[in-house]
Design brief:
Blueprint (H helix, E strand, L loop, with lengths): L7 H18 L5 E2 L5 E4 L5 E8 L2 E9 L12
Antiparallel strand pairs: 1-2, 2-3, 3-4
Amino acid sequence: YEDRAPGLGREFFEEVMADIRTAVENPEVGTTQESPFRRMLCRRFPFVVVYRQADDELRILAVAHQRRRPGYWKERD
């Protein structure tokens, strides 16, 4: 995104990090995709943050583009 406009890469990063902080504070906030996976849509960018609760930690599995093959990140779990 930084190549598209100066500062846009930083805005993308900050939005993803804000979504991750929200998920850490309230893991139930994301929509259930396939149990146990949850996802949060980025507001300004075509990406989702995919995560799951693992015992007492939150595991971020992907920051996935919405047009990419669904579930490509499942091998990372």
